[in-house]
Amino acid sequence: MILLAYLAAAIGGSGLLLSLAGWAATCRFARRPAPTLAERPPVTILRPLHGDEPLLDEALASVCAQNYPEFQVVFGVQNPNDPALAVVRRLQARFPECDITIVVDATQHGSNRKIGNLINMFAAARHDVLVIADSDVHVARDNLDRLVTTLTRPGTGLVTTVYTGLPGNDGLAARLGATQITHTLLPGALLARLLGRQDCFGATMALTRATLERIGGLRTLVNHLADDNVLGRLVREQGLAVELAPTVPATTVPETTLKALWRHELRWARTIRALAPLGFALSAVQYPLVWSALAVALSGGEAWSLGLFALAWLVRAVAARGVDRALGLAIAAPVWLLPLRDMMFVGVMIASFLGDRVEWRGYSLYADNGRAEPGTRAS
Q1: Local mean pLDDT, 10-residue blocks, the chain (379 residues)
Q2: For the chain, N or C: smaller number of CB within 10 Å?
Q3: Per-residue 3-state assignment (H helix, E strand, C coil) for the chain
Q4: What is the pTM of this model?
């Protein structure tokens, strides 16, 4: 048992190094200079919607308030009674100068309903530079400038962004979800990019109409759960780079219960696990509080293991607050939540290997090597 305790401690120590490296990667990213753009081509922003959700008004308003000379915003729903339409109508009154187009089309094209919605919306897009973003993404006023500047770099085919988590309420679940995104996923993504990965993150994606047509259009993505991963791969296969824009939007974490958060994170985990099971399993190293707690249990609570757990908590807290400061976030990391946060997500990772069923906005699907196999409507 003591040998296992030492092994857990060694893995936990590796996780601490990853936490510090992720913090350093975030600081390095935050120091990137603001871009300058000689030409500012017109842009169409595509925002598929599905129902009302916390902070939806604020997220969509941030799109309409872009400091950019010419852009169109296309909002799309598949249900004419979708409550998100009322939010868009209010935005039209609030931003009369903004070029807003609404598409209501119930046509289904495949198992990925978000991509199906985008296919319906695409015919309304008037410009050749396209920005696809989730409904819950909050952006700064210079977001389009930063995306387009990055997209115009030679050899670039696709631009994406990392993002922080923004609690949609004051509850425990929303805070846990937000700290997972901001203090684990974001630094990990930046560290992976420094190591040479070119991942695409579906919360925000920018590309030209020509590049999209070159890879076969949106229909090539319609039966994939990880449509962002597939899009990035197809672009790279064309010999083009997937670049990261120097901007960090926020995405709303709307969950009000731990059960709802568990389901959301399990969907994400099973999607990633279906694509890269070994790499996903190895990513458990980045949760040092879990490994140090395991060392405590296996060693019978020896003093060295308790010291390691305290050190792991301290380093995770310092790194998390460092990420907050680097990104200029007003809400600091809830330090007391970090052990619960790490343990919960490792539980999600374990559960992801016990099945293939995922839930997305009330619909049940099955993850099969990244594809979305139709299931039943979720209860």
Answers
A1: 93 95 96 80 97 95 96 96 96 96 93 93 97 96 95 95 95 94 95 93 95 96 90 96 96 95 92 87 93 96 96 95 92 80 94 81 60 48
A2: C
A3: CHHHHHHHHHHHHHHHHHHHHHHHHHHHHHCCCCCCCCCCCCEEEEEECCCCCCCHHHHHHHHHCCCCCCEEEEEEECCCCCCHHHHHHHHHHHCCCCEEEEEECCCCCCCCHHHHHHHHHHCCCCCCEEEEECCCEECCCCHHHHHHHHHCCCCEEEEECCCEEEECCCCHHHHHHHHHHHHHHHHHHHHHHHCCCCCCCCCEEEEEHHHHHHCCCHHHHCCECCHHHHHHHHHHHCCCEEEECCCCCEEEECCCCHHHHHHHHHHHHHHHHHHCHHHHHHHHHHCHHHHHHHHHHHHCCCHHHHHHHHHHHHHHHHHHHHHHHHHCCCCCCCHHHHHHHHHHHHHHHHHHCCCCEEEECCEEEEEECCEEEEEEECC
A4: 0.90
